[in-house]
Amino acid sequence: MATRIDQEYQDLKKRVHYFLVERLDEEGMEVGKSGRETLFAFIQDNVRSFVAQHRMPLSAQDLTLLTRETFDEVAGFGPLEPLLADETVNDILVNGPRDVFIEVSGVLQRAQTRFIDDDHVTRVIRRILAPLGRRLDESSPMVDARLPDGSRVNAIIPPIALDGPSISIRKFTQKHLTAQDLVNSGSMTSRCLEILMNLVEARRNILISGGTGTGKTTILNLLSQYIPRDERVVTIEDSAELQLNHPHIVRLETRPANTEGSGKITARDLVINALRMRPDRIILGEVRSGEIIELLQAMNTGHEGSMSTIHSNSAKDALVRIETLLAVNGYDAGERAIGRLIGSSLDVIVQLARLPSGRRFISEVVAMQSTPDDPYKMETLYRAEREEHGDLAPLTGEGPT
């Protein structure tokens, strides 16, 4: 019964939306040039007129909801508007018209949000991309872009997406967690924070490792705040998320290929260029491909204190992933030479983890103590043990000497 009523409401929204589009065209109103209050009043009057004309038995509450959702449809991103406005929502994942999930405080949950049909999802995707100058069609069925507020959006449609159009949005927040916020939430202890601060100030090369959604960018942003103010910093990101309150910073961002397939600028291109900009430190948002070669060489040749992140489930796995990236991107050297390069370039690995409850925390901080026999020898500077009930046990390990 509930499904039938919901479908009837979605059908009603579709009819009202088409009616409003016709009325806007008849009145010559341009959505982009009309004030929000004027536009809302116009939509409110016409929704009421449509409901009265068709003698629809809607309660005052349902009429208010229909008006607001129609306004979101005409002036914004439809059903996504409330989720984009909700500061507690970190990720929005649309798997189809009736399969919308959100992440709140690290926990993925189904949202009540619904789209009318696949065409409705596609229409919202194109509305999101239109101001960005990006297209999405059968010849170019997937796109990765950054919204004006810094949020990242990935969209993919058939024939690549077999079950219909899909949207993934990683929201960007202007309010970054402070060190004290992370300590208060149990993401790290005061002792861990002290260790990390000392490592940054001592110009150690730091790699932040963790799985998806463990807070790598949050920790990278936090550590960057402790870079001395007299140092020149160059940041390189696919989507600009870092917010460094630093007086001497240059921010670079990669660029995808245009519709003709040219103009692409990769992270590797930007790392190479950054080395010509006299940086004291290079901060690379994430290691994904061939940029690892230039980053390691930069860390090893006078750019101490550089930082980056990598997807990996442990510190040792992070080293294996770097080896793989070097190999597949044409770094032609023997196993021992690769080990020596990595061991001599990286000083510290900060490993992040996330509990099933969604709680994120720093699980360990290890220092690389490379030797001729073991280039990956590690010393634990900090470790947070997980007890059976899921809380963090008291910290073990000593700080760096």
UniProtKB/TrEMBL annotation:
Q: Which Gene3D superfamilies match?
A: 3.30.450.380, P-loop containing nucleotide triphosphate hydrolases
**InterPro entries from the UniProt entry:** AAA+_ATPase, P-loop_NTPase, T2SS/T4SS_dom, T4SS_GSP_E_ATPase
Question: Which SMART domains does the UniProt record give?
Answer: AAA
GO molecular-function annotation terms?
A: ATP hydrolysis activity
| Top-rank taxon | Bacteria
Annotated AAA+ ATPase domain residues: 202-356
Q: Which Pfam families match?
A: T2SSE
| The family this protein is said to belong to | Belongs to the GSP E family.
Q: What is the name of this protein? A: Type II secretion system protein E
Q: What organism is the protein native to?
A: Marinobacter lipolyticus SM19
What does the organism's lineage look like at the top? Bacteria, Pseudomonadati, Pseudomonadota, Gammaproteobacteria, Pseudomonadales
